[in-house]
Structure formats: structure tokens, C-alpha cells
Amino acid sequence: MKKAVFSVFIISLLAVPNVTNAAVPPTCPADLESSCEGEFFPGVPNILYEGPSSNNPLAFKWYNAEEVILGKKMKEWLRFSVAFWHTFRGTGGDPFGAPTKAWPWEDGSNSLDMAKTRMRANFEFLKKLGVDRWCFHDRDIAPEGKTIQETNANLDEIVALAKKLQEETNIIPLWGTAQLFHHPRFMHGAATSSELGVYLYSAAQVKKAIEVTHYLGGENYVFWGGREGYQSLLNTDMERELDHMARFFEAAVAYKKKIGFNGTFLIEPKPQEPTKHQYDWDAATSANFLRKYGLINEFKLNIECNHATLSGHSCHHEVETARINGLLGNIDANSGDPQVGWDTDQFMMDVAEATMVMLSVIKNGGLAPGGFNFDAKLRRESTDVEDMFIGHIAGMDTLARGLRNARKLIEEGQLSEIVKKRYKSFDSELGGEIEAGNGDFELLEKKAVELGEPQVASGKQELAEMIFQSAL
Q1: Based on the domain organization, do 37 and 121 belong to the same domain?
Q2: Could you write out the three-class secondary structure of 428-465?
Q3: pLDDT value, residue 176
Q4: Percentage of residues in the chain having pLDDT higher than 90
Q5: Is residue 244 annotated as a catalytic residue, yes or no?
Q6: Do 176 and 111 reside in the same domain of the chain?
């Protein structure tokens, strides 16, 4: 594979150390005793909080981990995590173009040695960024072999290194998952495949992924059904596929309890892409599925903001829908381009969106044991090593600003007062009876006749928007 040559990102005017892709990757010992610390990002310092007046792109302007907001430290509200696949397996390739990135720790192979190098780079990145959680797909951290046994052996070897690095750094997985969408065997789905053999293979893979997540101390385990759906109902028995998926989840719950894994099971809704219709379309659809099959107490939801917009909702809507159903477990913090119709997985940069999301998270009392995972990737054209840090710093600062803004709105109370006044008629004795379930139609008709034509008050939407914008 030819190595591309990329220009150096000049930031000397901002007094930031120069970092390039020309760094020579370390030669790491084959054993687990050395993490090759400080070799992958030699020009990047530990990322520190410098405040809003800082012009340093390698510093936090709004995220101050130890600062207390509404009774909790910022790091406890936000519980940040880095996605291994986008950060250390992202190539910049897209449906129309070849990879654009040539990282100094990457040689393009998928060998065990290369997997170990990526894992070491991952933990150095996490330490310098100041994040103590990470997320992974099984097939992205370890290469697939010719058999299940060989694949599991590869995974065990990489997991042993990850365990060693975790012990050195006190970093743990926010969640793990099985990658059940890339290999051709999953063309018809995994748990919903029309082929029994694929269903069996998927169960074996998920079983191992749950074991690995448990062994590494993962706080959650995610199910993302990228192929769990259909392209056409003409050749699909949708009812049978949904039943199969429910049986699959039941078996996963039983195994989780058997091995003593106390982490939360999460389902990640997405409407389509790659299938025309995926069975976990949005938060409401997923909640309905869990209720129908008696799984509502065994799962929560991992809301991804870009998936929300693809389903025709805002991220705030999906987070709030999950919250009021008691299902808000985790948030994949990313966003999409409104002019691009697919899952672009960009870092969240919209402070207004982050503020609305944080209003729901605060109402939820936080996300623990979930958190905010940066399921986000650099743009195809961003090819310098420091871009990896800058993208995460900007995303973390955006959510930190959202948290600060949400605190301001809550403490000032103007928005909540608008909402309270809007529904004040239901604070009456009759309103209380209705909300308690005691309002039969005969009573409601009688009261309607007594009241006559109702007087309808203004919704004050523009005032609410003015107050919200003033907090930004």
C-alpha cells in the first residue's frame, strides 16, 4: 500500500506544538508488558481546560471535568467515551472514493500485530484526551479468522492486551458490541436472517462479545441491528423475523444473567441504511417492540443523534421519548448534515441542539451507567493527526456548553414557568380528576356544557424561543 503524503497543519501562531502524520510508529514488544506510552502522539500534550478565552485548539474552552454543575461534576454528567471504530479504523473512504488517511500507526493490514498497535494508540489517545471510557465492536478490535474458534482466539489475544492497558490507566468500556453487518453472511440480517445457520453464528458471536464486555468491566452492551430489517416486503415474513429477533434477545438476557453481567443492555434505533426499513426505526418503535415481547424491563435505548434526524425527528425528540418511557440509557453524540441524506456521523457542533439534549439528560438525573459516546468520524478531507483531538475536543466542549446553558435555563426558571402556565387549567380539581383517570365521558360532557365555549390562551412559542436563545 502506498503511503500518502499530507501537509502539516501549521498552528505555531497559536503556540501549539506541531503535530504531523510523519511520526514514526513505535516498535512495540510482542508481550503485554509495554504499552509504548507516549510514542503515537509525541507532539500532543495532555488536553487541559483553559477557559472560553483560550485560542488553543488543543485545549478545552468549556469542558472542565471537575467543575460542579447542579450537584454533579461535569465529568459525571457527561461520562464521555471514544468510539474505537471511527477513531482508529476510520479511513476517510466513502461510497464514491478511496481512503484518504494514512495514520502513523496504521499499515493497512488487519493482522494481530496491527490490532495490538491500534489498541495501544487508542489508550494513549484516551489518556491525553482525558477520557476514561471507550466503546468497541468485536470485529474492529480483532481480525476475523477462518472459523469461529480462530476468530475467538484472535479476540482473546487483543482483549488480554486491552485488559492490561485498562489496568494501567483506569479506563473501562462504556459499552461493547458485536459487529453483525459487514460480513457477507449478514446480507439478510443476523437475528432476523432467513438462514438458520446465520442465526446460530450470530448467537455465538454475541455470546462471545457479551463475555468480552463483561471481562473488560463494560458498563453496558449495545445491540445495533444494521441489517435487521427488509428491502422488500414481497419476499419477507416480517412477523416471523420480529419473533426471531425477540427470541434472540430473550436468549441474550438469559445468558447475561447466567454469567453475572450486570451491565445494561441497550438497543440503538435507526430507521434505514443499509436496509430500506430497519425494525428499530426510532425510540417509539423500539419501545413498542420491547413492550410487545415482554422485554421492556431488560433493555434501555442508545439514542444516536444522526439516526434521529434520519428518522425524521430531532435528537431532542428521541432523547425525550426515551426518557419519558424510562428507556434513556446512552447517547451517541454525533450529527448529520441536513443537505446530505445519509449517516455522516459528524461531531456534534450545534450548541442549541446540545442544550436541548442536556435539558432532557438533567431531567433524567443523568445517564449513568450510560454516557455520551462520540460515534463520530473525521471528515474525509481532515487528515492530520491533531484533527482527531480537535474533533473530540470540539464535541466535548459543545456538550459542556449545552450543560452550562441548560443549568442557566433551569435556574432562571422562565421556560419552566411558560410550560407551567400553559397547562394551568389542568391544575384545577377537575383537571386532577381527569389526570387520575376518573373523567368519564358523561362527566366531561356535563362540565363542557357548564363551561361553554373555552377560552384558549397563547402558547407563547416565540417567547420560549427568545428565552432559549438568550441562554446560548
Answers
A1: yes
A2: CHHHHHHHCCCCCHHHHHHHHHHHCCCCCCCCCHHHHH
A3: 98
A4: 86
A5: no
A6: yes
Domain that includes residue 456, residue range:
414-470
Strand, helix or coil for residue 302: strand
For 156, phi then psi, to 5°, come to -60, -40
Rounded Cα distance between 222 and 24, Å, is 35
Run of H or E residues at 72: strand 72-73
pLDDT tens, position by position, 183-215: 999 999 999 999 999 999 999 999 999 999 999
| Residue 399 half-sphere exposure toward CB, CA atoms < 13 A | 31
CA-to-CA separations, 145 to 151, 182, 193, in angstroms, rounded: 4, 14, 22
Domain count for the chain, please give it. Answer: 2
**Spatial distance between the Cα atoms of 33 and 50, rounded to a whole number of angstroms:** 35
Active-site position among 137, 214, 313, 392: 137
Angle at 218 between CA 58 and CA 28, to 5 degrees: 60
Amino acid at 127: K
Spatial contact of 374 and 327, defined as CB atoms under 8 Å apart:
no
Which pLDDT belongs to residue 395? 98
Cα(335)–Cα(160) distance, rounded to whole angstroms? 34
Whether 4 is in a domain gets the answer: no
pTM (two decimals): 0.90
Whether residues 278 and 317 share a domain: the answer is yes
The pLDDT > 70 percentage for the chain reads 92
Closest to 350 (Cα-Cα) out of 305, 290, 407, 409: 305
pLDDT digits (tens, 9 = 90+) for 252-271: 999 999 999 999 999 999 99
